[in-house]
Amino acid sequence: MNERNIFIVRSGEAALKGHNKPYFEKMLAERIRKLLRKFDGVEVRRMGGLIFIRTDKQIAKADVLKELSKVFGIASISPAVEAPCEMKAIADEAIAYMNNLILEQGIRTFKVEAKRADKNFPIQSPEIAKTIGGEILKGCKVLSVDVHHPDVNLFIDVRSDITYIYQQKISGHGGLPLGTNGKGLILLSGGIDSPVAAWMMAKRGMSIEALHFHSYPYTSERAQEKVEELASILAIYCSRFKMHTINLLPVQEQLAMNCPEEEMTILLRRFMMRIGEAVAQNQNCSMLITGESLGQVASQTAESIVVTDAAVTMPVMRPLIAMDKVDIMAIAKEIGTYEISIQPYEDCCTVFLPKHPITKPRINKILDSEAVLDVEGLVASAVDSATTKDIYPA
Amino acid sequence: MIYLDNSATTRPYDQVAEKVVYYMTEAYGNPSSLHHMGLLGERAVKKARQQISSALGVTDQKVIFTSGGTEADNLAIIGCALANRRSGNHIITTKVEHPAVLEACRHLEREGFDVEYLPVGREGIIDIADLSEAVNDRTILISVMHVNNEVGAVQPVERIGKIKRNAILHLDCVQSFGKLPLAAGWADLITVSSHKIHGPKGAGCLCADRTIKILPQILGGGQERAMRSGTENVPSIAGFGLSAQMIAENMSEHGKKAAQLKEFLRQGIVGSIPDVLVNTPANSSPFILNISFLGTRGEVLLHHLEQNGIYVSTGAACSSNKKEKSHVLAAMGRTDKEIDGALRFSFSEFNTMDEMEIVLDNLVKAVSRFRKLGSFR
Hints:
With 394 residues, chain A is an alpha/beta fold. In chain A, 41% of the residues lie in helices and 22% in strands. Chain B has twelve helices and twelve strands. In chain B, strand 3 (90-94), helix 4 (99-110) and strand 4 form a beta-alpha-beta unit. The chains are: A alpha/beta (394), B alpha/beta (377). The A-B interface holds A 216-222, 252-253, 256-257, 261, 264, 344, 346, 351-354 and B 299-300, 302-304, 306-307, 321-323, 372-373, 375-377.
C-alpha cells in the first residue's frame, strides 16, 4: 500500500462555479497532469470534488509540490498516506505515519480529527478519532494528546474504498485553472509591474501572449534578453506562450520631430495601445493587459489613463491599478521576477523621456498633435515589423 | 566585422587557440602529478614562465601566475600592504586606476590603511610633483597604471621609481604589456593579463621579486611558490606564454601601425564631425582613442555601429554594464554631458586602414542621425 505518495488537492473557487464545476475541475486536473508528465507513473484522478494525485515513492514529495506550486486554481494541498477502510489497518498506517514524523520533525503532541464521507462505514467520526488516537498513544510512546496546540493535527478521511491519512494543508495560489478565461495580450516591459500584471490575470484563468516594445539601438540587446528572461519566468505559471517584439524607434522618431516634447510619453503610450490592439486582434486575444498603477508616473495619472484608453476600443485590463508599489514588489519577489526586473537596462519608455512630461493631458490637444502624423501607417508598419518567439518555462 | 574593442579583450592568435585545445584534449595532466602526463603540464607552465619573463625582460623566477589582471592587482596591493604593515600604513595610488586596484585600496582603507588617491589633470596624467609631495617614510606602496584603459594616457612611471623612497612600486601594465616598451627595472611589481595580448582569458601574472614581502591571498597546495595556490590553469597559461612571445616579436611594428590607424581616425572625426572632444591626450598609447560626441549618448552610437558590425566601447568593459559615469573621465574634469557622449576605439594588429574609413563613414551618419533627436536627452 505504501509504495506511492498521495497528494490531495482542493480546488479553490472552481468549487463555487455551479454547473460549470466539472469543467473547471477537469481543466485543473489537466493542468496538473501536464506539469507532472515529467515524472513516470503519475496518476491524477478526480473524486468527490477533490483531485487525488498518486506518485511513485521514488519521486521526492518536494519535487511534486514544487510543480503543483505553479498551478492556478489550487486552494490547498495535503500530502497523505492511504489505508484500507478497516480500523486495524488505519491504526497501523497512522502509527507508521506518526513514527515517521517523530523521527523527521521530533513531534511530541498530537490530536486526531476524523471524517466519514462514506456513511456506510460502521463507525462514526468521533469514535474513529478516539480509537485511532488511542492506538497512536499505544504505538508511539513519546506522544501525548494536546487538543489545543498539538504539534500535529492528524486527519483521518474515510472514503468508500480508501482511507486517507494526512496532516498539514499547504496553501496554493488560489485563482482559476489556466485557460478557463480567454486570452489577453500583456504589454511586457522590462520593469517590475507588467510581469506581475500578467501573472495576476493568468491567476484568474486567462491565457496570455506578450508584446514587447524596444528602441534599438537606443536600447540594447541585453534589455531584450532581460525581457525574454522575465517572460520565461511567467511561462512557469502560464505554460509556453508567444512573445511578439516590435521596434518603436520609427514611431518615436516621428513623434520627436513633429510633436511637442512634453507630450512625447503620452503620445507614445497611445501608439503602444493601438499597436497592441492590432496585434491582439491578429492573435485572437480579446483584451490588452498593462501594468499601470494609478498615479505611479506621469503617464499613469487619471487624466493620462483616460487619454491612453481612448486610443483603443478593446478592453484594457489593469490589474495593478489600485495597488501600491510595495505590494506589487512583494508579488514580483514571490513569483521570481523581481531580481530580473531590477537589472538596470534602458527601456523604450525611458530613452526619449521629456524633461517635464504633462500630467494632465487633454484629449483634444492630443488629437491635434497626432493630426500631423500618419497614425494608421505607423501602426501598420510597426505591426508588420513584429518578430514572434515561443517562450518556454524557465 | 570590425573589432575596435581591443582594450576590453582581444581575439586570440590562432596558434594560441590551438595550444589551448592541445592542453585541454591531450596533455591535460595536473602539473603536480608525478607521472608523465603531469610532467607535460609542468613543462607547459615552465615554458610559459620563460616566455613571459623574457618578454618582460626579467628572470623567470619572478612570474606568479594568477587567474588574470584583477587577481594580480589584488595580490600586489592587498598582499603587499598586509605583509609590510610594520613599515607603515600609507599607500598612494591615483583616481584613474582600474577598479581592480581602486576596490583593493578601498578594502585596505576599511582595514585601517591610509590611502591617498592622486588627482590627474585634463590629460589624465598625474603631476609628478603631487606624488613627490605625497611620499613619506610611512609610504609602503605606490600603485599606478602604466596606460589608462579608458583614455590611453601614459603615466610617467619611469620617474616615479626615482622618488618612491622605501615604498614598493606596483605598476598595472595590463594595457601596455606587449604594446609599449616597458623596462622591468622601473617597478618592484608588475601586473599583466593574457587576454589583452591575444591570449586566452583566465590567465595573468604578477611579476614580483622574491625579496618583496607579499602575503598570499589564496591558500592551499602551495603552487606558484606558495604565493598562489590552486591547480595551474595549464591551457590558459600555455596560451598566455605563446601570446606574450608572439606579441613581443613585432611590438614596434604593430605600435607604428596602430598609431597610423589612430591618427587617421582622430583626424577624420575631428575634421568631419562638429562638436567633438578628444579625451585621449597626446602622450598616450597608440592603441586607444577616446572621443566625446557632444549631444549624443555613447551607448546609442555603440548600438548603431554594432548594427553594421562595428564593435566599440563606451568606456571600460568592466563598468559599462553599470549605470555609473566613467570615474576616469570625471577625474579628468569632463562634464556629465561630455562623459555621456564618449566612445572608446581600441586597436590591435589585426585592424586595417580600410576598416577605419568604414568606421568614420558610419560614425558621421550615426552622429548626425541621433543629434537630430538629441534634444530629448
